[in-house]
Amino acid sequence: MQNLSLTDREVVKLRGEGILISDRRDQPGRRDLIEGDQILDALRLRYSGNSSLPGLKKRSVELFFGNETLEDTIRLFRSSRVYISVHGAQMSNMMFLNPGSVLIEIQPYEFRDVDVFLNLAPALGVTPYRYTSMSGGHWTSTSVNVEHFLGQVTSYIDSLV
User: Fold this and answer.
1) Chain centroid offset of residue 137 CA
2) 2-61: pLDDT as tens digits
3) Which of 18, 40, 55, 77 has the fewest CB within 10 Å, making it most exposed?
4) Per-residue pLDDT for 124 more than 60?
5) Cα–Cα dist 11/18, whole Å
6) How far apart are CA 15 and CA 35, in angstroms?
7) Which long-range contacts (CB under 8 A, 24 or more apart) does 122-125 make?
8) pTM reported for the whole predicted model
């Protein structure tokens, strides 16, 4: 990444602790997450809001739409420790994560045996985590049980040092 022509060369040196959620809400039915707003709000309340949980690490929670400039994309990913995304091409942006980051892939049931991103993550120094949805498929929206998803994901995020 050092050879990229960036206005702000310091962007590649960023090391953040934030949470980044890929959201394709501008393309409903294209592997978007139906409950994305609920999950975003819950994560923001827990990590960047006025949480009442003692000892909980504050983390920014940002959205990635996929239409950002290259520089803004790199900035978002380098500022994040956790990347949450429904399975799809947008996950290839994990190459901009810092080593030691975590990839949480929401796999639509139809893609339950497609491990391309989960297999690539360790080569980038990224820890993969899979959450399988019982809905979704090729070019369709994906749905999760919000309470179950948040229970699984927040316990994992809370364990990060």
Assistant:
1) 19
2) 455 556 667 767 788 999 999 776 666 566 788 999 999 999 999 987 665 777 888 999
3) 55
4) yes
5) 15
6) 29
7) 124/94, 124/95, 124/97, 124/99, 125/98, 125/99, 125/100, 125/101
8) 0.88
Structure tokens that stand for 12 in this block: 């590649």
- Strand intervals (E) in 1-155: 18-22, 61-64, 80-86, 102-107, 127-132
The 3 state secondary structure assigned to the chain is CCCCCCCCHHHHHCCCCEEEEECCCCCCCCCCECCHHHHHHHHHHHHCCCCCCCCCCCCCEEEECCCCCHHHHHHHHHCEEEEEEECCHHHHHHHHCCCCCEEEEEECHHHCCCCHHHHHHHHHCCEEEEEECCCCCCCCCECCCHHHHHHHHHHHHHCCC
Residue 48's identity, in one-letter code, is S
